[in-house]
Amino acid sequence: MEQNKQSKVEKLAGFVLWASFLAVVGLLCWYFRNVLIYIVLAIVVSLLSRPLARFLGKVRIKNRYVPDWLSSLLSILCVLGGFILIVTQVIPVVTGIIKEASFFSNLSLFDGTIADTVNGWAISIFPSLGKDFDAISVLLDYFKGTFSDISITGILGSMASAMVNLVIGLFSVVFISFFLVKDPKLVAKVAAALVPDRIEDSVMEAIGDIEHLLSRYFVGLTLEMIAVAFFNFLGLWLIARIGPTYALGIAFIAGILNILPYVGPLIGEVLGVALCLVLKYGAGIGLDVNIMVFAVIVFAIMLSVQFIDNFVLQPIIYSTSIQSTPLEIFIVLLVSGHVGGILGMLAAIPIYTVIRVVAGRFFYNHKAVRRLMPDLEKDVHEMNESIS
Known about the structure:
mainly alpha
């Protein structure tokens, strides 16, 4: 009887110790959350950079191979440069669309066409406003009062602080990812140092599998984004006739938003149609048809690209990169979206990949894992062959 009580006390003590340890780890993660964000971004950049680094490492110049440090640095700079190029392409195009379309003047907000309608509607509902009520004047006075209280010094200080944080973050990501690319087994070595010796080899192999799968996934996701942007660009340029510059900017927006599962493509389509309508109505750019027909054509173009992505690109990426079925991915995204929203859906597939690999390495003998993931052992074997 006393032995049972002692055993229960020991289990309770062990549970309390583990709970305390996890609580301390959670607090430390929260306190150093900015550092963790830099590390996560560096891991993603390194996983994207490794295939290019391996390719550059095989290049020979005058019978000499490119050094590891140089191939690592060049691959990281290429990845970051690609993302910066996308951002610099999108922002000027969007601002150019609004500027060239002369959105406010062409909608006649100030010449009375729409303003009189709005004023008449407001006066009919609230007669106490009086016949001289002007909604535009009220709106302008509101914005003047709102922005007059904002300190220019405060704005400049916030911008300076944001720039400093951006530079620090960018340098941190490049610095960390450089060592992760230069030594692909660095994460595995660190993890192996924290686990018992009996599972050290299994942990290193599992982390190698995870990094291999996630690298293929992130590369596939990037190629998917580029493919969606490319097909949208062709449709908007050749069919909707909005011009190559504007088509490229809108296509890049749709491609970037496509990274967000389910909601991202819908937002991209709505935003793309809205920007095309601004060009059509404001500056007369686009196919010479009725504006409603033009909206339908643009929506059909972007929807067709989405069908190509859903039924061609995504099955190829998910089946070859993380070796999961579309049903698995759908359920995982559904659950993660319910729990964590958009951020949860973004992190769902990488986390699920980690769970699959860990289950295959350490828990495949359990009946539930064998039933739910019957091909897991074969997948792990194929991963090992592809890595070697």
